[in-house]
Amino acid sequence: MPVNVIITGRSRSFPKDVPPMPGSGTVLAGTAAADVISGAAKACLDFVAVELNNECLGDHIGLDADPIAARIVGFARFRLGTADPSNLIELVSMDWTDEDAVAAAKAAFEGGGFVVACCADRPGRIVNRLIRPYFNAVLRRLDDGLASAADMDKTLMLGLGYPEGPNALLARTGLADHHEVTAVLEGALGDNDFTPARRAQIAWQRASK
């Protein structure tokens, strides 16, 4: 039995076709996915997976244990700016989420060819919490005049084996998007490491005009 996939508006995780996924559950994707959580949860068999952007799952289902919400998980397919989505699915659950629902959702996404990383419901999840401060540090050193963007990228590529330098990566995928994500995390966490670097602030201001 294939998973029931409901697309409710533009989806960052699935901008194109959704691969078939085996299992007995429902995947809600798109900008209006949260609007149909309640109905899907009441009708679900094994799990309901709702697509997240920068928000937390708790924003939609609350923080307190709920029998109906216990089979709801969140997911986000990591995507850096305008780049194509990666093959990584970050699967989000609450402390009280049904373990069988998490396992069923994980199996469904893996059956669709994705690599799944499970995490708690925290702002930024795994990847953004780790890479956004790094990107900000790189951009600030560029503002400080430590080296040119090309030389910084060359150093990191040759020294650490990165396939692409961070400056080139952000230029390709969008500094304005980086600003959007880091600004949300700064507001949620109150951590200055997430304060958007000046170059990202300017890119966002120019994109907003």
Written overview of the protein:
- There is one protein chain.
- The protein is built from 8 helices and 6 strands, in the order ββαβαββαβααααα.
- It is an alpha/beta fold.
- The protein has 2 domains: 4-120, Rossmann fold, CATH 3.40.50.720; 127-202, N-(1-d-carboxylethyl)-l-norvaline Dehydrogenase, domain 2, CATH 1.10.1040.
- It has a 6-stranded mixed beta sheet, with helices on both faces.
- Helix 2 links the parallel strand 3 and strand 4 (72-77).
- Helix 4 (127-144) crosses helix 7 and helix 7 (175-189) crosses helix 8.
- It is elongated and about 55 Å long.
Q: Given the helix and strand composition, which structural class is it?
A: alpha/beta
Average pLDDT level:
93
In terms of DSSP E residues, the strand content is: 15-25%
Q: State the end-to-end CA separation.
A: 48 Å
CATH architecture of the largest domain: 3-Layer(aba) Sandwich
Give the strand order, joined by hyphens, for the main sheet.
Answer: 1-2-3-4-5-6
Number of strands: 6
Could you outline the blueprint of secondary structure elements for this entry?
Blueprint: E1 4-7, E2 25-29, H1 37-43, E3 47-51, H2 58-61, E4 72-77, E5 88-93, H3 99-111, E6 115-120, H4 127-144, H5 149-160, H6 166-173, H7 175-189, H8 198-208
Parallel strand pairs: 1-2, 2-3, 3-4, 5-6
Antiparallel strand pairs: 4-5
Helix pairs in contact: 4-7, 7-8
Question: Could you give a short description of this structure?
Answer:
The protein is an alpha/beta fold and 209 residues long.
Keywords, please?
single chain, 209 residues, alpha/beta, Rossmann fold, N-(1-d-carboxylethyl)-l-norvaline Dehydrogenase, domain 2, 2 domains, six-stranded mixed β-sheet, 6 strands
